[in-house]
Design brief:
The chain is of the alpha/beta class. The chain folds into 4 domains: about 110 residues, Tetrapyrrole methylase, N-terminal domain (Cobalt-precorrin-4 Transmethylase, domain 1), CATH 3.40.1010.10; about 120 residues, Tetrapyrrole methylase, C-terminal domain (Methyltransferase, Cobalt-precorrin-4 Transmethylase, Domain 2), CATH 3.30.950.10; about 120 residues, 3-Layer(aba) Sandwich (Rossmann fold), CATH 3.40.50.10090; about 130 residues, Rossmann fold. Helix content is about 30%, strand content about 25%. It has 17 helices and 21 strands. The strands form 4 sheets. It has a 9-stranded mixed β-sheet with strand order 16-15-17-18-14-13-19-20-21, with helices on both faces. A 5-stranded parallel β-sheet has the order 3-2-6-1-7, with helices on both faces. Helix 12 runs parallel beside helix 13. It is elongated.
């Protein structure tokens, strides 16, 4: 068996949007993923379903696997012929022990590649509004660790000879030793009035920044409740965050939300919330996969030109329908003169991606409104209607259209199933931390959440979320399942749902 290879990959400071293109490419196609504790759950959803994921991280000094065992694991997996991604927070060669792993791989004759990542200091500086250098009065940047190998007899950091002027000092892993670090620097001649910014959970939605000066940072950090992981930035530029901190001014910064989404599906809703500063936990409650009967597909497309209406009840139906359509036809014009209806704006937006115009969109995005809007066209008497749906599609559309004397063919193109959350990284994050709010966008998501409640029990000190519904159909399902509906969007659309979140959780609502 030919040997595989190992990629030592930097995952960046935490925000999934800061992962490099090369890193994402490798994560998506690797056979084995070996990852640390600070890797975001969203990143762990990128590998293939058959990828083996192995956690080797540490928290609060507790190592799940000693470093020498990690190195043996990488060698063993590569010798099995696997493409292995060793995913490390930040950059592999900046206090990441990547060099030790590279040396071990070299000694074993294993091919490897190092993929750099955005190191934590860069992320903390950018997201706290702290330029690490500035040509007018700061041209030196020093990166130093506050926590070294515990087996060392003495520190190798020469605190007394670090540059005291024209410099920004970034200290990694220094929270537990902040008091001694500050005192060492003052004893070395650093001005006690020099500004300090401690950036906790840099680049994430729950980022916090403790600002003080070197002489008072110890007391301020205690009162602030500063915890790891945090980057300590010391220098004149640390005060600039009070003027140019763009991230902290976002309306949802400091808030955490759970988005109930389908497994393996990019979430438009998550992107909207993250752009407003929120941290999003994408909880894959349901799995949506293509499910098309080939004989039905052949029958439908053989008669596609005979249909008067093509009706889509969800964006997923649009995606899987056109995927199957272009397996049969080369040209969108093969649809003929068919009229198209969509259950709502999100579905119509998906249709537009295929350069097709939607002829009918109801005022409210639900099956009842769609049926009423179609009936109101007075075009259904003896009309042939193709209804594209999933396995859980509601019968209300078919019933109401047939009552209007339409001839309805239902074409199921996908199936929705509950996922197993017992070992899911995002579910683990939710159980441990909780959230400010949990957002439901479908009845199937609500039912799946209730069915899997045993795997979503919150820790005693976790934040208890309020629930937010996208619209009346989802709210009715929540009530039926015994769940509270704390907030509901004014109309059943993603934009309206986001508006409801900002109105009830944003900084201006406090």
């Amino acid at each position: 068996m030919p040997e595989g290879s190992v990629y030592l990959v930097g995952a960046g400071p935490g925000n999934p949007g800061l992962v490099t293109v090369r890193a994402k490419e490798l994560i998506e196609r690797c056979d084995t993923l070996v990852y640390d504790s600070l890797v975001h759950p969203t990143v762990l959803s990128w590998p293939r379903a058959d990828c083996e994921q192995i956690y080797v991280g540490k928290k609060a000094g507790r190592h799940s696997m000693p470093q020498n065992e990690i190195q043996k694991l990488l060698v063993a997996k590569a010798k099995e012929g696997n493409q292995v991604v060793r995913l490390k927070g930040g950059d592999p060669f900046v206090f990441g022990r990547g060099s030790e792993e590279a040396l071990a791989l070299d000694a074993a004759g294993i091919e490897f590649e190092v993929v750099p990542g955005v190191t934590a200091a860069l992320g903390a500086g950018a997201f706290s509004g702290t330029p690490l250098t500035q040509r007018d009065h700061n041209s030196t940047l020093v990166i130093v660790t506050g926590h070294e190998d515990p087996d060392k007899s003495e520190s190798s950091v020469d605190w007394a000879n670090l540059p005291r002027e024209n410099c920004t000092l970034c200290v990694y892993m220094g929270v537990s030793r902040l008091e001694s670090i500050a005192q060492n620097l003052i004893d070395a001649g650093f001005d006690p009035a020099i500004p300090v910014a401690c950036v906790e959970w840099a680049t994430l939605g729950h980022q916090r920044v403790c600002r003080a000066d070197l002489g008072t940072i110890r007391q301020e950090a205690k009162q602030f409740g500063l915890k790891s992981p945090a980057i300590i930035i010391i220098g004149e530029n640390a005060a600039m965050g009070e003027k140019i901190s763009w991230f902290e001014s976002k309306p949802l910064q400091g808030r955490r939300f759970v988005v109930t989404r389908s497994q393996g599906q990019a979430s438009e809703l998550s992107g909207k919330l993250e752009r407003l500063g929120a941290e999003v936990i994408g909880l894959p409650l349901i799995s949506i996969t293509r499910n098309i009967d080939e004989a039905t597909k052949e029958d439908v497309f053989a008669e596609i030109a005979s249909y008067d209406w093509l009706v889509f009840s969800s964006p997923n139906g649009v995606r899987y329908f056109f995927e199957a359509f272009f397996e049969t036809f080369d040209d969108i014009r093969s649809l003929g003169f068919i009229r198209i209806a969509a259950v709502g704006r999100s579905t119509a937006k998906e249709i537009k991606k295929f350069y097709v115009t939607t002829d009918l969109i109801p005022d409210e995005a639900n099956a009842d409104s769609l049926a009423e809007a179609l009936v109101a066209t007075d075009s259904l008497d003896s009309a042939n209607v193709l209804l594209v749906s999933g396995n859980l599609g509601r019968d209300v559309l078919t019933v109401k259209l047939e009552e209007a004397r339409a001839i309805v063919d239902r074409f199921e193109v996908y199936k929705t199933e509950a996922t197993d959350l017992s070992n899911d990284p995002a579910a683990k994050e939710f159980r441990e931390s909780g959230a400010d709010g949990i957002l439901f966008t479908s009845s199937s998501g609500v039912k799946s959440f209730v069915d899997q409640a045993k795997d979503l029990q919150l820790a005693e000190d976790a934040l208890r979320p309020q629930s937010v519904s996208i619209g009346p159909i989802t709210s009715a399902c929540m009530t039926q399942q015994g769940m509270p509906v704390n907030h509901q969007a004014k109309e059943a659309s993603l934009d309206s749902l986001v508006e409801a979140v900002v109105a009830n959780f944003g900084k201006e609502s406090e």
